[in-house]
Predict the structure.
Amino acid sequence: MPEHFEIERELREQLSGRAGHQRCIVGHDELLLILHEVPKAGIPERDALFFWKRMDGRWLQPGGPGIDEVDALFNRYAEAVDANELTLETTESTEQVFSVLRHAGPLARSLRNMVLALEQALAQEPDDRDIRALRDKSKDLERAADLLQVDARETLIYWQAEATEEHTKTSEKLGNILFRLNLVTGFFLPLVALASLLGMNVNLPDFLKGSFWVIVIGALMVGGGLLWYVFKDEMKK
């Protein structure tokens, strides 16, 4: 709480040792608006800013009279949203998109609660045009933060789907290559088997010794038959 804030007892009794969530505290004749500074990704603590409306109708802020520091706070929120949008548009790194998503969530929640706090203040002071203008601007920022969060989430989903599609295409290509290799192996398998058998150091019958080309052609025909049989079943699928 700024030292120059001399809030009334009704307001002070509603406070504790912590600033707490964003809200507008209503006293007997005064208001105390509590807003949060721009959140940082991965840090749950929030820095609070206090804005006090005295019983004479004047607003006081940490820097002195007025409420223009709320506008400066909105500019910092807008800069944070714009910086994350730029990162999302230019990055090709999943890690950076996840970093944007981690920051977009707190930004959207903080702005959503800020809108509620300003609406609470506006309910107490419906004729305060400054508060109404700030409420409307905070809604625009809330929408921008929500869109940032949605865009970051959809980017991750799109990249995941794209990676899955590429993996499926690669698997199909590998399957086709293996299928062709298996066909070639099956075609020459009978020849290799007969060559291994006839190449053994055993006494072969006389009728086999002069039949080399007959055996080769016969083995290739058997391999071709196996190839036709497998290819026929594959075509039916």
About this structure: Residues 12 and 27 are 9 Å apart (CA to CA).
